[in-house]
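Standup, Tuesday
Yesterday: got the pipeline producing structure tokens again.
Today: sanity-check two examples.
Blockers: none.

Example 1:
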Amino acid sequence: MKNVISTDKAPAAIGPYSQAIEVNGMVYTSGVIPVVPETGEIPEGSQAQAKQAFTNLSHLLEAAGTSMDNVVKTTVFIKEMNDSCANPNNMSVRRISVKVKKAIGKCLLVLLCIVVILAIIVAAQFYHRSDPKNLKQYDTENPFITGKTTISAHRSGAGDFPEETLAAFRGCAENPDVQVDYFEFDLHMTADDILVLSHDATLDRVSDAVTVFGAENMLVRDKTLAELKDLNIAAQFVNDAGETPYTDLHGDAVPDELRILSLDEVLDYLTSAGDYRYIIEIKDGGEVGLAAADQLYATLNERNLLDRVIVGSFRDEVADYITANYPDMHRSASPAEVVQFYFAALTGKTDFTCSYDVLQLPFGDAESSFGINLGTTTVINFAHAHDLAIQYWTVNAEEDMAYLASVGADALITDYPDRAAQVLHTR
């Protein structure tokens, strides 16, 4: 009997695999990386990274109903062996036999050759930016391919406003210079099963949650909507001048436009404010993520918004669940599907098929795109040839905005929709 283990307290799987699998009483974890799940950041220094990796591993084991006390085997991959050997007290590393070192060396050499070959292939295909003349035109029935590059306010315009607050939505919707086509925002489920807007699983990064709750890293899932309404979601917002204009607002002094929003609240405002489309990401995974998908579908269906929304998730199980249960809800590709699409585009696969409508790809961030330029006519032509809309995140540089528009990107997901409007409408 196989059981898939999933938890928000450890980094999500970024490929076609699960965080952990339990089989016949044994738990097998996938590779655990030193990423802080709440922020997506990697701590500085090898010691901090090692600690974070083992913390993530312990959370996975806890989700499986066990603990570190029951571990029977652990494999640790060390980036630089010399760093580990530099400590004279690290006798276990110093005692590695010559034979083992040679075996490791051979494996590393083979791996290096594979990496170099792939790098050459990737560089040849994707390193240089494309000539817009290579863009092709295809007949399409995809409603998110409009023949022009549209603008999506990432986290409701997080560069100019406190992210995912009513103040931000108003700042975009009521500013004639912004001209937003989409609003992008994220959902988490509260303790009383209400969908609320939050990018992170905790609210420490954006709010005064530590002051209000008296502890760090309190999960959205552990608090009711009423409890979360006590927070100032804009407390940590820093404007372009380096100021924190809302940091001293607490309790009754916090205006409603700076408090956490439920899904119903934001849709009430936006549907009355204009004819917008929406990119909505379900952040929770596991059973909570599936319940969030159920609730989101019911809400969109009741409001007749299914044709105006693209739903996404970095959780493969949530993406698969949406495909299986709600085929009339438009969905973006999961991370595993993005990888499959990329190699299909790279090789020109002729029998490529998929169950999603939209690709949302990183651009301009070497870490999120692994240094690969995904904004090429090769990628965009392949997507459009298969009736897939292609949207890019998080595009904040004006040069990148102009380039992606020139090669046929269907949408720019940006923290600065006002900047994008200026670039696109002056071309």
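Example 2:
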Amino acid sequence: MPGVRHPADGMDPCRKKGVAMSNSMPMGTRVKLSAMMFLQFMILPVWFIPMFPYITKMAPEGSILPLLCGMIMGFGALASPIFGMFADRLMNSEKVLALCNFVTAALLAYAYTVKTPGALFVTLLLVMVFYMPTWSLTATIAMGSSTTEAFPQIRVFGTLGWVASAIFSIVGTKVFGIAQFDGTPHIFAAGAIAAVMAGVLAFFLPPTEPPAKGEKMSLVDTLGLRALVLLKRPDFLVFSVLILLAMVPFQWYNVYNSTYLSERGYEYLTGVMNLGQVLELVFMLMIPVILKKAGYKWGMVLGLLALAFRYVMFYLGASYGLRICDYSGILIHGLIFGMLVVGSQMYVDAAAPSDLRGQAQGFIGLIMFSLGTFLSNFVFDGILKKNVITEGPNIGKHVWTTPYLIALVFALVLAVLMAVAFKPAVREKTNG
């Protein structure tokens, strides 16, 4: 099929000229790529996680602004294929990354000054339009300058950056001379600073040239939709459908679990949720080993089974008030994220031809972080609304056992479908 690589050209960790194995990567390159991940994944939690108290205070009573702001990540991810097109055909990926980060910084700096709810929503929506594509761009840059096998070792620094973002809350109170950092506009200033740092670093990254530069472009190329040709391949089509459906129970945890923990009486919700990111550091380093032994198919089945285990734990926690079960469901996050999200990025890098890798990463980013988020909100928001307690001392709270049981069954069915229907048409990992 024109434009699509033969399966034998798929997963070869040594396919990049001059790179034999992950440990042969020059140390300078490894440091730069690791710093890129650290800063890039620090930008978002600096302002997005503590944003909602500020949005709630600004919005008039009964406003849908908090709900809309909670969806901006999904809207922003819609732009990922377009920026992937720029990286494939027009500009070096690291230059596109720098552009996105500087525009993100400028918009966040402007958000710091905005005083009206509507203007703030539009500004933050534009922030996500330029920020969300950077997740796919960093994957393209990292895997273009190393081996696919080395990617999790580099990506783990993104998790470190996410956890380290809490430092801004501590430093921010001192720099701005304020008693409270979260829930104030200062979070946007901190996000702008992090974005500028990431933008400057991009100029020092290994050059990742557009593989299809100079080729004739169509409207499909302009919209970043050329990667849709990959859906003609049965393996990529099945993978795309299943990973989209997997995002329904996966994203539900990200969107609603803080509400569950709050109703269970937990304090310091960000810290409790970040326990999953802490253990993610360990799981991320295990990904190459797991995929080397099991392959993409069974690695993703493992991720879905871990997702099912999470909801078993939350079901038991909600049923019997067992905090050990709640913590178990949180701590398994790293294995779920690693197998489903990072594993998907690695599979796409293996499955896509070189001139489509940027757009392909953008496409899978759109599926996971945009369409998947919207679908998750649509499905589980309706389920939650039907499980609100309407009388007694807990009025207004939710019955969580039913939603968690549905999520559990959903994940198990997807694990079976992944095992039966997904047949990767790429070579699995070798020792190089």
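Quick observation on example 2: Residues 7-421 form a domain with the Growth Hormone; Chain: A; fold (CATH 1.20.1250.20). The chain has one domain: 7-421.
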